[in-house]
């Protein structure tokens, strides 16, 4: 019944859009017949993905004359008497051409970022509205073009092209993301990293994140902040990933249908509706995909429905609405020992097969946001959300059923007092997230529920207050100061064992950040920063061996020192981004496996994370060159990690030290990682993408007694885009992953224990050579 009401709402919403467009078209026809005269054109210019106002946009007529320029708030106004085309030009963005220059009144121009020079693209990291080159700190930008360099079913290829970021995924049912080593030892999902979607937290109140609910194809871009960002985003020592759903290209109204098929039973069908108008920008997509999987018992089925709406009711207000519902049915094949991989890498773990391990769940997310400018000096951005899922989760050691419901919001006020000396912008805000997990656990009888063994509710509350100021010390020098105050509380109710109920209220954390930036020239912008962060244990990690709350467990803490250099060379055709950092972690959570399915944690570790990251991108051809090849771009991302245990002790259930691993290499982190590629696009529609990923050998356990071998994986994709007449656009493509048929495991079960003298099951074999092919057809209304 709820689904029918939801679909009826979408239907009525789209019908209203169609009516609006029909009226707009009729008005345009009438206006074209009116007598030519001086007309006033006013409006605002925004980044189509981030909704940030764009200053300094040159507005030109068909003769190339500059008519006006947008002010610091993105506003413009001018008179004209020419019915020719009007162009909006800004470095770092694709030139936007107004299709109907005879329009009058207030319009809202939406410009798309130019991926050819990412250093000049505006980013919102640390609440700024500056180019990537101007922003202090290590921030990477991923666009939809990066995601679609492969099959588009996973973020793995795009994220692994960012130095310092690693996404491990061998099947579609399991994924793990780490940033600078943080999160790599997570037993499930993501830890130590905050994830947002359209400024709405995807990360749950206890700090864990699962990204399976995100439809990869519906993502328009993502910003990755590397290192502690707690001063403005709350808990998290690894960093932040801000995803943005696609928004429709300005002035486009279209329907698109796409299909994809590939090896191991891969099928995907999807449809999208786009409407990019002055008063409303709408994007609605539906996707269905199924994948039998490379290994036995690894089938994965998804259903995605996403809606992203942006409304411009006035030149002071932008309203956004997010609707997302995802269904996942995934089998989990489990980890294998080295001998099992050698015998048959496609087999499933016997226990996982016997217990029919899998994850079956449905997510629903609704978010509403508003940006409002009270005046040129004072503005606010606020979003509220509700998020829920139900989980049916058979595991080798238990059968879990959970229901999760959360709600919360995030608000940020920006004030510029317009000081004549040392001009400063102030930001204050807050984030609140409250989640309730109702969890039951049963005996797993070969994939069906047996006797009830646990019935526990987790009521988690997180809030964060933050402050940031940006002060101009000179025309090219910027000082940033940030501070946040964060609190987290777990309220556990155990209905079968009331004595194990309790409250874990973590001591509030204050996390400061200071950054200094100086822009020398186009060739060099230099940044230095010191930031702190913290990451509390998740609700599943606060238990003692008997299931009671551990009152002594505290949050992990990090202190990060960083120097970052960014710039463009050879007339902006070669862009570089170099980071050198040192991060010290203390009070790290050390997991101790007591028995199968039971792990306890202690604050018994210190680690040092010293490293360097380099990203290079080179546009070989000049934009003005008239070649058959329109774009030729090689790129390289290189990561060096010298991560070690500094003071690292393994404690047993009673707190006694059983092993010391001081000086060992950090488990799961490779010293060297290289990602490289080449993009070629021609003027007649043919394109070719090549990519290569190398991962150095990796320690599999804290003792460094076992290693995963180094491996290199290559892939390629080629396609042809063409416009068919005036109303259709066709894209046909095909690709091969793991071209050289490498045997490797991307995701690893670190610190696996072999019970009863058995080998540890570390490995989740990744697919051998496999291919895919697809097409999309867009109809332009």
From TrEMBL:
It is a multi-pass membrane protein. The lineage of its organism: Bacteria, Pseudomonadati, Bacteroidota, Sphingobacteriia, Sphingobacteriales. Belongs to the TonB-dependent receptor family. Gene3D superfamilies: TonB-dependent receptor, beta-barrel domain, TonB-dependent receptor, plug domain. Residues 278-739 form the TonB-dependent receptor-like beta-barrel domain. SUPFAM superfamilies: Carboxypeptidase regulatory domain-like, Porins. InterPro entries: Beta-barrel_TonB, Beta-barrel_TonB_sf, CarboxyPept-like_regulatory, Plug_dom, Plug_dom_sf, TonB-dep_rcpt-like. PANTHER family: HEMOGLOBIN AND HEMOGLOBIN-HAPTOGLOBIN-BINDING PROTEIN 1-RELATED, TONB-DEPENDENT OUTER MEMBRANE RECEPTOR. One of its GO terms (cellular component) is cell outer membrane. Transmembrane segments: none annotated. One of its GO terms (biological process) is siderophore transmembrane transport. One of its GO terms (molecular function) is siderophore uptake transmembrane transporter activity. Keywords: Cell outer membrane, Membrane, Receptor, Signal, TonB box, Transmembrane, Transmembrane beta strand, Transport. Its main location: membrane. Residues 132-239 form the TonB-dependent receptor plug domain. Coiled coil: none annotated. It comes from Pedobacter hartonius. This is Iron complex outermembrane recepter protein. It is found in: Cell outer membrane.
């Amino acid at each position: 019944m709820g689904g029918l009401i939801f679909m009826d709402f979408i239907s009525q919403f789209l019908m209203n859009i169609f009516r609006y467009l029909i009226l707009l078209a009729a008005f345009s026809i009438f206006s074209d017949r009116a007598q030519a005269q001086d007309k006033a054109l006013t409006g605002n210019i925004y980044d189509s993905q981030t909704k940030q106002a764009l200053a300094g946009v040159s507005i030109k007529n068909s003769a190339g004359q500059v008519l006006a320029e947008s002010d610091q708030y993105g506003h413009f106004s001018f008179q004209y008497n020419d019915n020719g085309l009007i162009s909006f030009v800004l470095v770092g963005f694709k030139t936007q051409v107004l299709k109907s220059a005879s329009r009058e009144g207030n319009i809202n121009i939406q410009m798309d970022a130019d991926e050819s020079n990412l250093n000049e693209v505006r980013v919102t990291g640390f609440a700024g509205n500056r180019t990537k080159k101007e922003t202090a700190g290590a921030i990477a930008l991923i666009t939809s073009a990066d995601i679609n360099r492969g099959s588009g079913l996973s973020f793995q290829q795009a994220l692994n092209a960012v130095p310092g970021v690693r996404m491990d995924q061998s099947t579609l049912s399991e994924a793990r993301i780490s940033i600078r080593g943080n999160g790599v030892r997570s037993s499930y999902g993501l830890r130590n990293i905050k994830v947002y979607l359209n400024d709405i937290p995807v990360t749950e109140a206890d700090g864990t994140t699962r990204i399976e609910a995100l439809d990869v194809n519906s993502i328009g871009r993502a910003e990755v902040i590397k290192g502690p960002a707690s001063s403005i985003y709350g808990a998290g020592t690894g960093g932040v990933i801000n995803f943005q759903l696609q928004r429709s290209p300005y002035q486009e109204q279209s329907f698109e249908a796409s299909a994809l098929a590939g090896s191991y039973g891969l099928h995907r069908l999807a449809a999208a509706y786009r409407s990019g108008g002055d008063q409303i920008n709408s994007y609605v997509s539906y996707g269905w995909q199924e994948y039998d999987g490379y290994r036995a018992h690894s089938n994965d089925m998804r259903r995605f429905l996403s809606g992203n709406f942006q409304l411009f009711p006035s030149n002071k207000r932008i309203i956004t609405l997010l609707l997302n519902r995802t269904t996942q049915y995934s089998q989990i094949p489990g980890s294998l020992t080295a001998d099992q991989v050698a015998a048959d890498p496609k087999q499933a773990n016997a226990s996982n097969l016997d217990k029919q391990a899998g994850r079956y769940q449905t997510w629903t997310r609704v978010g509403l946001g508003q940006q409002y400018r009270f005046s040129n000096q004072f503005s606010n951005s606020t979003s509220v959300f509700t998020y829920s899922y139900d989980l049916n989760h058979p595991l080798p050691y238990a059968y879990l059923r959970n229901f999760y419901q959360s709600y919360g919001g995030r608000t940020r006020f920006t004030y510029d007092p317009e000081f004549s000396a040392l001009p400063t912008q102030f930001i204050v805000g807050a984030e609140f997230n409250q989640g309730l997990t109702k969890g039951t656990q049963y005996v797993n009888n070969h994939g069906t529920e047996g006797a009830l063994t646990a019935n526990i509710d987790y009521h988690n509350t997180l809030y964060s207050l933050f402050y940031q100021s940006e002060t101009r010390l000179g025309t090219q020098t910027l000082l940033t100061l940030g501070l946040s105050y964060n609190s987290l509380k777990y309220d556990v109710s155990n209905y079968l064992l009331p004595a194990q109920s309790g409250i874990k209220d973590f001591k509030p954390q204050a996390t400061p950040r200071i950054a200094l930036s100086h822009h020398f020239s186009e060739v060099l912008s230099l940044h230095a920063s010191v930031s702190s962060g913290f990451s509390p244990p998740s609700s599943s990690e606060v238990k003692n061996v008997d299931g009671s709350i551990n009152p002594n467990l505290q949050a992990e803490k990090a202190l990060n020192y960083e120097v970052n250099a960014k710039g463009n060379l050879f007339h902006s055709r070669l862009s570089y981004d170099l980071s050198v950092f040192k991060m010290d972690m203390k009070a790290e959570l050390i997991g101790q496996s007591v028995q199968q399915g039971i792990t306890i944690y202690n604050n018994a570790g210190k680690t040092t994370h010293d490293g360097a990251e380099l990203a290079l991108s080179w546009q070989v051809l000049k934009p003005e060159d008239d070649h058959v090849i329109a774009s030729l771009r090689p790129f390289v991302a290189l990561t060096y990690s010298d991560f070690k245990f500094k003071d690292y002790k393994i404690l047993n259930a009673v707190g006694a030290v059983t092993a010391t691993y001081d000086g060992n290499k950090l488990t799961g982190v490779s010293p060297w990682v290289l990602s490289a590629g080449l993009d070629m696009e021609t003027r007649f529609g043919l394109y070719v993408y090549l990519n290569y990923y190398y991962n150095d050998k990796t320690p599999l356990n804290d003792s460094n007694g076992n290693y995963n071998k180094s491996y290199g994986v290559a892939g390629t994709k080629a396609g042809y885009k063409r416009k068919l007449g005036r109303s259709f656009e066709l894209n046909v493509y095909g690709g091969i992953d793991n071209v050289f048929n490498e045997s490797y495991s991307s995701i690893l079960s670190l610190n696996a224990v072999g019970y009863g003298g058995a080998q540890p099951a570390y490995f989740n074999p990744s697919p051998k050579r496999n291919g895919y092919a697809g097409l999309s057809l867009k109809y332009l209304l």
